[in-house]
Structure formats: structure tokens, C-alpha cells
């Protein structure tokens, strides 16, 4: 009659335990599922190379959509010209109308990045445009195929329309069913505390991870911020064994608080779904990228509330990538980045620029006051000049297509990662020590956390060409 | 059989500033009886000092009367024995080296045997303790309780003999120690009572022994849960750095660790009646990130059979907000103060005895301030017999020129007795 003393025994080791216990205190085995027996802690983590569709019992972490054909009419497409590398409007010369602190937060809003790779450096001799030292050579670099890619009609495989697979709306929230995100130990107690390191499993969007094999990503709250305002979404069209397109979106919500995280997640989800839908419909990657960014913008604007103060209105950065068998298309607003990494990159060769072949190359250029001013030979704060969402005065994305000459890995990330890359060689070195997209993404996030984790971090890795598990 | 259950309450401020790596908590454990009354079998061994110093008729007569009272308090069926302690241990009752079973006849015989005791010989307490250990070891009683009565110092053997015996006997039975008069050493009896999870007290007047002995036996008879263990689980990179009982008295349990495993160790707390005790637990944890929450310690109350009877959790959350990490938990603050109070008294009295009057004044002044703060009236009363209190709140005191040895020893002996938190501030 005294419910407080209802005990049972561990089916594995016989240790006494509470009936409501999830795990045995003695051996860590699972209690109350006697048919399943105990799970030895030494067993390998649940995540394996097996595709998500092959393990329905472990809980769906990926939603597959039997696709209805996307019905968006072509006439709805934005008719504005896409900005190109040669667009004279870039870099933006106007003073920013809204100064948004992106790093670090909680201190003075427009300070320069401390010690990071984009810490004000002496502008290069080239005045127009001026490049941060670790970023790629000017975009007029002839090796970049640029518009050439657009000349080719998209190849439509027969099943491209049939389906696409994308990460769940709201983020690939880790629920602890696959063990501790801090130390990888398998067993958590009934309240979600790790039975090895003691840390509680992250709640909600604190820690997100997903692995589709051909693309994988990890996002983490970091070790300073109270919540995660970074977001990611990704997927592929067609069959995982031979996807035609692999698409990914990373967003970094501007400001702090729940709104920032929601803006980023909604933008990433809407952007990825639109991107994959358009691609499955046969649109080319550049147009799909622009469409997707427009959909993401709509999603963020839907969060706008006229009662909110201006600085509380939702806004986010955005970077997307479409990877095919032959090329990589990135589109972005703000300071989230895309890097190209290929075997052969040397950690001791910082800023190895050039063609997206050997080495590491940043494919994006931050839309920041600093970059704007650098163009004028000035030092300035790392402050966004373009973003997605309310009050944005430049939602036209910048789009760039490159055609790498060898296999490699595309990495999308927020400043929570690149703020810790003293030089891009660090990124290449970390990526290339791994052998899968999932390991590379979590390795990069671990790097950011071990360096201090001052900001939220989101990282997606996509092996190139599409469909490869690793270059 | 239905079991008692234990409520485990954890008081702590779980919020830590960035980088902090120490978690303090007060774990309050209350034992609740099951629906059916529990009657674990109980045995009592009374160790009576019969050395030559006890010869003074008033002392020996009082000890005999106290033994009578103890025997009369035994409930039927309890195991018992009376041992005379000198430079050796001699069975008084029963004559054979095994426990008698309390009943009409055995109680009568035992009292007659006690009346025959005469004093003479030295004092070798390790032999007394080993005799009790042997009596318990040969029996199957669940609750094992010894009472040691002495009036003098352990003069017939080296101190190491007692230490060795205690290491061997630790956690095999409980021993309450009583010193009569002022010729015994508080430190000697405290060593025994701490190792054997009992109490130590001073009996000023031999006549007080009678009520004290009866009370001790009755208390022993009330114990209902033998061999209760506090099991502390910690994360892999963490460690328990201190475990103390802080209520009803300060008792360091750190040395009572047993069954140490990679992530858990047990601390024996002895037998329980349906009572409340509080424990101070300190854990060293690896500092985690701001916003992270860690299970710093999982506290389980475990009985002799390994059944978990109650549990609680000690948490840690790192934050940059001083409004969170700056708050001191009143329970933790109170018992931390009580431990400091006990230490200040003991150090102050040691300093006074060794002639270091500055330290004595400082420490005892601090003790007065702490006693005032925690409204510990009992301790304040005892302190005021050793120092003249000029201002209690600030601890301004003057050492008394002459202090009755009895007052000195009483304050020392009872320094560990804590008070519960009064009211709320
Ligand atoms: Zn077990
Ligand atoms: Zn863990």
C-alpha cells in the first residue's frame, strides 16, 4: 500500500531499482522492459550508417514526404534580376540602417570581432573590393563557373518529382533516445541526466543533430548563451542512394530570446522545404535558391508583431546550398558562411585561395558593415548589413555557383563556428580527419564548444558530388 | 515484509557561477514507519569500566545502579551481555561468551551478577570493544548496540591499539560512550563514538547515570531499521569530497565510505528509528557550460539488503546571473555555520588548554557569534561558562580566569550537537 517502496529488480544484473526507474543504477541497464533485456552500456551508439527509413523502431527523426507536385506557377517567381558577383551594388555602400550585434553578444552592440578571423585586419592593397584575409579571392575569378552553370538545363531524373526527404519541421531535436550529447554515453536516467557525465540532455532546440548520410548537421546552444537561436534544415530529392539534389539551409536568428530562435528555425524549415520542392519540380538550383529564400523571408515576416519594438522584430541570417553531381550553388544573406573543403588542404596553408579544388575556400562574403567599410579601406564593426526578415532593406540574396574539379565537402555554418577558426586551414584539418558528414559536423561543433562556445553554433556538411558518403 | 520508507529532501542553491566546481547540499532524511510495526531483533552489550579508579564507592555504586536500569529497560527477547572492562575484558553476565536473551529470569540473574562486581585493574578499551565485537559476531541480531562507560583514560595500552580495533570493528555495531567525572579524555571517547556511529556525553554526577542508561537502552529498542546506508552516485569526473551528518549532531562520515565503485560509494549511517537526520554533502564536479544542468549527485537511502528506501537529487546549473548564483540557501548556510561552530569550540578549547589564549579568545568568540546567529541556546549557555560574553553578535568575549574542568569538558563533548534552523529570515 505504500507506493514509495515499490521496487523491482534489474533484469540484467538483479540490482534493486524503483519501478519507475528507467535505468539500473548498478549496471546502467534498462529497467521495465524485461522483454528487451538490458542494454549493455558498452554497446555501440544507436546511430549507425543505416538509413533512417531502415530503422523505424528508433523513432522517426526524418520525415519523408510523398511529394505532391509543387504547384507554384512560374509567374509567381520574382522577376528581379539575381545579384551577381559583378553587381555594382555589392558591396553595399550605404550606411547600415540597423546595426545588429552578432558577436559577441551581451556587450557593446557594434564591437569588432575579437581575435576571430575577421578581426579587423589591414585591408589588402586591392581597394575594390577588399577581402578579409581568410576569404576567397575576388569573385570575378574566372575559374568560377558562375553564370555558366545557369546555361545548362537542369537534369530531371524520372523520380525527382516523386519525393524528397527533409529534416523535421521545428528542428532535429535530440530527445535523448540516442544517448548523451555531451559524452556520447548511452544511458540517461528518468529525468534525462546522463549516467556517466551527469549532464542533463538538452531540451528543445538546445542541441539538434540529424544524419541523412548524404548530408548531416549539428547545432548546439553553445556554452554561454541561454538558448539556441541557430537553426538548420536539410534534405535531398529522390533516393538516398542516388539523390539528384542535396540541399541545406543554415540560419542564425538575430538578437536573443525565443523569437530569434523561432525566426531562424522557421526560415530554415520554410527555406529547405521550398528549395527541395522547387528542385524536385525541376527548377534550376539558382532559381530554386531564390525562391526558397523568398519563402524563408515570408516565414520570418509571419512572426512579425507590430507591437514589438524594432530591435525585437524577428530577423535571421540565411545561407543555403544546393549540391548536385556537378556543381554547388550557395545563396546567402548575412554572415553565415559556406566553405568548400577538399582533400589536400593543408592546415599550415592559411587562406589557400583559388579554384574550388584543392584546399579550403570560403564561398560567401559576409554582409557586414565591416566588409562594406573595408571596401572603402576602413575598419569597422562586424555588424550585419543584410538579413532576412523585418526591416531588411536587402532581401535579395547573393547567389553563387561553383563547379569543383574534384570531390570535396561543402560546409555551411554560422559565426558560432567560424568565429573560432583562426584560419580556414583549421576547418579543413578538422573536416578531413573524419570520414562521414555526421562526424565532420559534430567534430566542428565540438571544436567550437571546446574553444569556449561563446555563441550558438550550427554546422551542416554535404559531401560532393551529391550522393557520395564522403569524398 | 513491508518496508519503512525514507523521505529525502535536498536543500541547495543549484545555481553556480561560471567556472564553479563545488556543489554543496544539505540532504535531510526522514524515516517513516511502515503500516506494520517493525521489530528487528536487537542486542545490547554494556561495557562497564571496573578499573581501580572506579573503586570510589559513589562511582561504582552508581554504575551498578545504571546497569540495573539498563537491564530493566531491555525488552523481552533482546540479546544482552554485561562485560567488566579493566586491562582486560571479563564476562559478568552471562558467564559464557555469548549473548543472553532478556526475560524475567535472565534480567534477575544479570542484576545479581552486576551486584558482585568489584573494582581493580587497569584500562584497555580496545579489549572491551573487541569483546563486544566477538559477542555480536557470534549472534544473529540485526541491531547491535554497545554502551561504554568509563571514568578514566585508556592507560593500559597504546592509542594505536584502539585505532586498530576500531578499524576492524567499524560499522559492525554502534557504540555510545559515557564519561563519568572529569578524569577521562573527550578525544578518546569521541574517537570511539565516531568510528562506531554512536554518541559521546559527559555524566557530571554519578547519580545521573541511571536515567541516562535507561534512556539509551530505550532509544536502542526504538531503532527499527538496521544498517542504513547513504549511497551517493556522482558523475564520472566528479567526486564526493565530504559527507557529514549535521543533525542531530556533527559526525564526519567521510571515513565511513564503503563499497566504493567508479561512480558511487556508500556511507554507513548505522541504525535508525523513525527520526530525521541531516547530512552535508560536498561534491567536486567538472564545471560545465552556462545554461547546462548537471546531476551532481544522486542520493539513495539503502538498507542492509540493498533495497533503496528513498532518494533525492543534487543538481547544478551554471549561470551568469548573480541574482541566481548569489543566493545562499538558508539550510546550507545554517548547517555550514553549525559545523563551523563545533570546530570553533573544539579548536578554541584546545588552544585554551595549551595556553594559546589569543587563539582561544578568537575561536571561542567566533563560536559565540555563530551560536547567537543560529539561536543555539544550549551551546550559548555552555560557552558562557568558559568565556565572558561582551557582545554576542560580534563574538566579543573574554576568557574566564578560572573554568571548572567539568564545564570545559561538557562544552567540548557537546560542541557537536547542532540546532535546527529557527524561523526564517
Ligand atoms: Zn542492472
Ligand atoms: Zn554524458
Automatic annotation (TrEMBL), chain B:
Query: Which CDD domains does UniProt cross-reference here?
Result: vWFA
**Start and end residues of each VWFA domain:** 43-225
The lineage's top-level taxon is Bacteria
One Pfam entry for this protein is VWA_3_C
Cited InterPro entries: CLCR (IPR051266), VWA_3_C (IPR041176), VWF_A (IPR002035), vWFA_dom_sf (IPR036465)
List the Gene3D superfamilies hit by this protein, alphabetically: 1.20.120.1690, 2.60.40.3670, von Willebrand factor, type A domain
What is the name attached to this protein's record? VWA domain-containing protein
| Organism from which the protein derives | Haloechinothrix aidingensis
Amino acid at each position: 500500500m505504500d507506493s514509495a517502496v515499490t521496487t523491482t529488480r534489474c533484469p540484467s544484473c538483479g540490482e534493486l531499482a524503483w519501478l519507475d526507474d528507467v535505468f539500473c543504477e548498478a549496471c546502467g541497464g534498462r529497467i521495465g522492459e524485461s522483454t528487451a533485456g538490458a542494454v549493455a552500456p558498452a554497446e555501440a551508439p544507436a546511430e549507425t550508417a543505416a538509413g533512417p527509413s531502415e530503422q523505424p523502431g528508433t523513432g522517426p527523426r526524418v520525415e519523408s514526404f510523398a511529394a505532391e507536385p509543387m504547384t507554384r506557377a512560374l509567374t509567381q517567381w520574382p522577376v528581379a534580376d539575381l545579384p551577381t558577383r559583378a553587381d555594382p551594388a555589392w558591396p553595399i555602400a550605404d550606411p547600415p540602417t540597423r546595426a545588429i550585434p552578432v558577436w559577441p553578444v551581451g556587450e557593446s552592440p557594434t564591437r569588432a570581432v575579437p581575435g576571430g578571423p575577421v578581426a579587423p585586419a589591414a585591408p589588402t592593397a586591392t581597394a575594390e573590393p577588399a577581402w578579409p584575409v581568410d576569404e576567397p579571392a575576388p569573385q570575378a575569378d574566372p575559374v568560377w563557373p558562375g553564370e555558366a552553370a545557369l546555361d545548362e538545363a537542369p537534369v530531371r531524373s524520372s523520380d525527382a518529382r516523386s519525393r524528397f526527404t527533409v529534416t523535421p519541421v521545428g528542428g532535429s531535436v535530440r530527445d535523448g533516445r540516442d544517448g548523451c550529447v555531451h559524452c556520447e554515453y548511452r544511458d540517461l536516467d528518468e529525468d534525462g541526466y546522463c549516467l556517466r557525465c551527469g549532464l542533463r540532455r538538452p531540451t528543445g532546440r538546445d542541441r539538434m543533430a540529424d544524419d541523412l548520410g548524404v548530408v548531416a548537421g549539428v547545432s548546439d546552444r553553445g556554452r554561454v548563451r541561454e538558448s539556441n537561436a541557430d537553426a538548420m534544415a536539410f534534405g535531398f530529392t529522390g533516393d538516398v542512394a542516388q539523390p539528384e539534389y542535396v540541399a541545406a539551409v543554415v540560419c542564425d536568428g538575430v538578437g536573443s530570446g525565443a523569437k530569434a530562435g523561432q525566426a531562424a528555425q522557421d526560415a530554415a524549415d520554410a527555406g529547405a522545404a521550398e528549395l527541395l520542392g522547387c528542385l524536385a519540380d525541376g527548377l534550376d538550383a539558382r532559381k530554386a535558391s531564390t525562391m526558397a529564400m523568398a519563402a524563408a523571408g515570408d516565414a520570418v515576416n509571419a512572426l512579425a508583431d507590430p507591437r514589438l519594438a524594432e530591435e525585437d522584430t524577428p530577423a535571421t541570417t540565411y545561407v543555403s546550398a544546393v549540391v548536385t553531381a556537378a556543381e554547388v550553388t550557395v545563396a546567402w544573406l548575412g554572415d553565415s558562411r559556406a566553405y568548400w573543403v577538399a582533400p589536400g588542404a593543408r592546415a599550415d596553408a592559411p587562406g589557400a585561395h583559388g579554384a574550388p579544388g584543392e584546399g579550403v575556400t570560403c564561398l560567401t562574403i559576409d554582409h557586414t558593415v565591416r566588409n562594406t567599410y573595408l571596401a572603402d579601406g576602413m575598419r569597422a564593426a562586424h555588424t550585419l548589413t543584410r538579413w532576412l526578415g523585418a526591416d531588411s532593406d536587402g532581401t535579395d540574396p547573393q547567389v553563387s555557383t561553383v563547379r569543383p574539379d574534384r570531390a570535396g565537402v561543402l560546409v555551411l555554418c554560422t559565426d558560432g563556428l567560424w568565429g573560432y577558426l583562426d584560419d580556414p586551414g583549421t576547418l579543413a584539418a578538422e573536416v578531413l580527419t573524419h570520414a562521414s558528414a555526421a562526424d565532420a559536423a559534430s567534430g566542428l561543433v565540438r571544436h567550437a564548444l571546446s574553444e569556449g562556445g561563446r555563441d550558438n553554433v550550427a554546422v551542416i556538411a554535404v559531401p560532393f558530388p551529391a550522393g557520395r558518403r564522403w569524398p | 515484509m513491508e518496508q519503512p520508507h525514507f523521505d529525502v529532501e535536498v536543500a541547495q542553491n543549484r545555481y553556480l557561477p561560471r567556472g564553479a566546481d563545488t556543489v554543496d547540499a544539505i540532504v535531510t532524511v526522514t524515516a517513516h514507519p511502515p503500516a506494520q510495526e517493525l521489530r528487528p531483533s536487537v542486542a545490547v552489550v554494556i561495557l562497564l569500566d571496573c578499573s581501580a579508579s572506579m573503586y570510589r564507592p559513589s562511582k561504582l555504586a552508581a554504575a551498578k545502579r545504571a546497569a540495573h536500569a539498563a537491564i530493566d529497560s531491555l525488552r523481552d527477547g533482546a540479546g544482552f551481555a554485561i562485560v567488566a572492562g579493566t586491562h582486560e575484558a571479563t564476562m559478568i553476565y552471562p558467564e559464557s561468551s555469548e549473548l543472553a536473551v532478556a526475560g524475567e529470569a535472565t534480567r534477575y540473574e544479570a542484576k545479581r551478577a552486576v551486584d558482585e562486581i568489584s573494582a581493580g585493574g587497569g584500562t584497555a578499551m580496545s579489549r572491551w570493544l573487541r569483546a563486544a565485537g566477538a559477542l555480536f559476531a557470534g549472534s544473529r541480531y540485526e541491531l547491535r548496540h554497545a554502551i561504554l562507560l568509563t571514568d578514566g583514560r585508556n592507560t593500559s595500552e597504546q592509542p594505536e591499539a584502539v585505532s586498530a580495533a576500531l578499524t576492524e570493528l567499524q560499522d559492525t555495531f554502534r557504540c555510545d560512550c559515557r564519561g563519568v567525572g572529569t578524569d577521562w579524555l573527550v578525544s578518546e571517547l569521541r574517537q570511539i563514538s565516531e568510528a562506531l556511529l554512536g554518541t559521546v556525553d559527559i555524566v557530571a554526577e554519578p547519580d545521573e547515570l541511571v536515567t541516562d542508561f535507561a534512556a539509551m537502552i530505550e532509544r536502542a529498542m526504538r531503532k527499527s531499521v538496521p544498517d542504513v546506508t547513504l549511497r551517493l552516485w556522482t558523475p564520472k569526473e566528479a567526486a564526493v569530497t565530504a559527507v557529514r551528518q549535521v543533525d542531530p549532531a556533527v559526525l564526519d562520515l567521510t571515513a565511513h565510505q564503503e563499497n566504493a565503485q567508479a561512480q558511487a560509494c556508500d556511507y554507513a549511517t548505522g541504525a535508525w528509528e523513525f527520526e530525521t537526520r541531516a547530512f552535508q554533502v560536498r561534491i567536486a564536479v567538472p564545471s560545465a557550460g552556462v545554461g547546462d544542468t548537471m546531476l551532481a549527485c544522486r542520493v539513495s537511502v539503502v538498507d542492509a539488503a540493498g533495497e533503496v528506501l528513498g532518494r533525492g537529487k543534487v543538481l547544478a546549473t551554471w549561470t551568469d546571473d548573480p541574482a541566481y548564483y548569489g543566493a545562499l540557501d538558508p539550510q546550507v548556510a545554517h548547517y555550514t555555520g553549525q559545523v563551523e561552530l563545533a570546530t570553533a569550540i573544539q579548536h578554541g578549547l584546545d588552544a585554551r588548554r595549551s595556553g594559546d589564549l589569543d587563539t582561544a579568545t578568537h575561536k571561542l568568540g567566533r563560536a559565540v557569534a555563530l551560536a547567537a546567529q543560529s539561536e543555539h541556546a544550549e551551546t550559548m549557555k555552555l560557552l558562557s561558562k568558559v568565556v565572558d560574553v561582551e557582545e554576542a553578535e560580534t563574538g566579543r568575549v573574554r576568557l574566564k580566569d578560572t573554568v571548572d574542568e567539568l564545564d570545559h569538558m561538557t562544552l567540548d563533548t557537546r560542541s557537536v550537537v547542532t540546532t535546527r534552523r529557527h524561523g526564517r529570515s
